[in-house]
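yo

u said u wanted the structure for the complex thing, so here. seqs first:
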Amino acid sequence: MTPVQAIIAKELRGYFVSPVVYVVGAIFLLIFGFLSYLYVVYAGYQAIQIMQMQGGQAQLNLNDLVFRNLFASMRFVLLIILPILTMRLFAEERKLRTFEFLMTSPIGINEIVAGKFVSVFLVFLSLLGLTGLVPTVLMLFSDFDWNPIWTGYLGMTLLGALFISVGLLASAITENQIVAAFLSFGILLLIWLISGLGALLGDTTLGQIISYVSFMDHYDRLVRGLIDTKDLVYFFSSLAFMLFLTHRAVESTRWK
Amino acid sequence: MIDVQNITKRYGNLTAIDRVTFSVAKGEVLAFLGPNGAGKTTTMRILTCFMPATEGTAKVAGFDCADQPLEVKRRIGYLPETPPVYQEFTVSEYLTFVGRMRGMVGKNLTTAIDQSIEKLALGTVRHRLIGNLSRGYRQRVGLAQAVLHDPPVLILDEPTVGLDPKQIIEIRDLIKSLAGSHSVILSTHILPEATAVCQRVVIISGGRIVAEDTPDQLSARLRHSEKISVTIKAPPDNCLAKLQSISGILNVFQGQSAGTFLLECALGQDKRDEVARFVIANQWGLLELRTISMTLEDVFLQLTRHEEGMTPQADQVSEFSQATQETAS
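structre next:
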């Protein structure tokens, strides 16, 4: 087992022996299930209305009525859930003074950051995997196009990775977990809200830049089933940038 | 093995350590002695590459802490002030993690864990969660972590804090057993500890090294004169003056009790014989006669007091009042 794997294993253990993952995971799945239920029921009402108006069998589009809405709502849920998962990563090490051990171990900061990131990402992926139950069950009762589902999941995965990297950065800055959580909420909300500013400025250069910086448009396209290289580049480059900042933040603690 | 040249560490305007220079040979145990906030931990953190020095170079096993930190870290076992343990791990799980972080695998790792558990007598708690262990056990787990990979250099920040007296002796024995094959730096403010386990003592105060020598030589070097304490059963009225008249006695001070006197004579002279004869010849009744040697405590207090801006004269007086108190007790 390499040091990075050792860190991943240690972090995963940390998550699963504490109640954090169970509580966060349960709430996440509950919200996902509840939202799915709401959208399905709403789709049902719509079907009934169409049948009453037109008569005969209505063809329901679950992709539009359920999944697009569901995936779009997941932005909120991820924004609240992921900072809770990431807040402990560095803050706790610093509080418990184990940070000094990590930093004096014969491994680079890159490896520490990578190990921590991968561990939360794995937790997130497993939660996301469990939500696969919803489309699987719906598949038994209705026909829909799987491609937008896959791109939606790709979108959630990339968005989650980005949120995790922001949370990791926030956790590296402070040794207080609550502060870390609020800091990542704040940063993420800000990136979210500037998309409104971008829309306001419209088609000007500044407006386009601001819209590009926010994850909203990029995520929306993936949810709608469009895979654009531009969006993938956005997610991967912003992820790399956040991880780089985290590296610098961890490094800077040595100079204080 | 460890070579520190003129390292300075500043936190903004605050200078934590100022041009500290010392070295540790292979197999030597060096004690870092100093009051709280003297810069012991800072020096250790620089040596373990946790933080860089503002100026100066520190080398461990020939590798520069600033240029080749990974090589340095590989060769160091470090116990920070607070043992760096994860509460949700059992002792053996924690040591497994520590070993893996240092690239140990398979049989190597399991034997190393067994050995360090045995060395630190952790056998009975090996499957218990660290979070449920007492302070002393956690400290020992921290030590087990430091010696796990059998590093050539050990840096221990107050290794016996929180241990009971029996455990302290065990840990000291462990450190003594490491001497010879390992270079050890340990910081402490418990002075007998330094005398008990270390070949050399570095006294640091206000970020500066104020003395560096063997414990014996340190106390010898700082003695300004030889001191004799004498207790007399029936001292006459002008006893002070009469004692002063003995040849070779430079000063006489009244001790705490009426019959106790402190006599000072030149360095390297032993006047006990003369004093005894003088007292007996005068039939005052000799009850006690002994030399007062400076303990490491005295050396330490004297050296660190200098830092607070007291003059050497004032020092000597306080040194005496200290010796007087000692006589009384």
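The domain at 220-328 of chain B is CATH 3.30.70.100 (Alpha-Beta Plaits). Chain B touches chain A through 30 residues (CB under 8 Å).
cya
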